[in-house]
Amino acid sequence: MSGPACVVFDPTLTDYDFGPDHPMSPIRVDLTVLLARELGVLQPAGGGPGLVTVAAPMASDELVATVHDPAFMDAVRLVGKDPYRVIEERGLGTADNPTFEGMHEASAHVVGATVEAARRVWTGEVLHAANISGGLHHAMPGRASGFCVYNDVAVGIRWLLDHGAERVAYVDVDVHHGDGVEKVFYDDPRVLTISLHETGQMLFPGTGFPSDTGGPGAEGSAVNVALPPGTSDAGWLRAFHAVVPPLVREFAPDVLVTQQGCDSHIEDPLAHLMLTVDGQRAAYLALHDLAHEVCAGKWLVTGGGGYAVVDVVPRSWTHLLAIVGGAPLDPATETPEGWREHVQTLLGRTGPFRMTDGRTPAYRDWSAGYDPSVWLDRAIHATREATFPLNGLDHQP
Q1: 341: which residues sit within 8 A by CB, 6+ positions away?
Q2: Phi, psi of 337 (to 5 degrees)
Q3: What structural domains and CATH numbers belong to the chain?
Q4: Is 138 a residue of the active site?
Q5: What is the pLDDT of the chain when averaged over all its residues?
Q6: How many CA atoms lie within 13 A of 295 on its CB side?
Q7: Cα 211 to Cα 143, 224, 230, distances in angstroms
Q8: Which of 104, 109, 137, 138 is catalytic?
């Protein structure tokens, strides 16, 4: 089941660029779009089958300011005109967030793309819309953090609330805790935030524990699954299905917003989970089906982290775009020769030959019970125990 869908993309979105030595290279977005285009996932310029590409507008200052402090925005403009300037208290000019020319404009453009995707979903122009350049979930109202300057996801959710949405569910599958989005809506019972991430005991930003469940009047609206390092497809999917669908069904949102960082992959250089492209694809399919089950298919999709820029990100997000477009790719599909030649010419590397890592994801359902001697099961149980009762659910298997 699917319906009308689009991807919001403009090549200038890759102006959000921290420089050639930074892990979050915009090349990952370029390679994704090229791979998706060559595999027929994206509609050709002259029309035909495939996911429609629509232009990405620039967000106005007023729109960005629905989440971000004007003084912070002024600081971003300042460093964008003087890229050698450091404003450390605002997170600008740090190793994570080096300054670059036009920083405000590039960051506002990403916000505009996500809000345009939100607008198209909310008005019914499409059922699903994606902005793979977005998902900048660490940015705080007054501070850049973790490669994220403006929090496009939070602005998109705020736009939905301001335009009539009564409940929004946000599911974040990035390997890092979605701390910025959670922070913005921590006291807002209209937004359910669920983050599945490697435990903050081991990984940036060091937050996102089961006991973090929402502020006064919004208890149970923040949900955190802190996964042990080494969690692979089977364990990750076990955790996802034990937590996400029951809570989202009970919350009954008007729209589902997801952050699809693919840095949970075993080859990602910045983290320690062990998913495959096949496991990530299974998560995308589950989220697609959940959107149709609980909110009539209204699904806003963003990108996020992902730093294996050749071997993982293009394949994972091409699968994501294919699912958004209602035509999932066979995992056994070969990558186009032209795409591999482009990778070789551009980077001197051999790109992957197939859209699969050769795994068939499977997991043990939580209803069979849990083993308290296993770290993963203890983590899942802790999240369910902390949040399910607050949402009117039984946390026992």
Answers
A1: none
A2: -60, -40
A3: 5-391 (3.40.800.20)
A4: yes
A5: 97
A6: 29
A7: 24, 8, 22
A8: 138
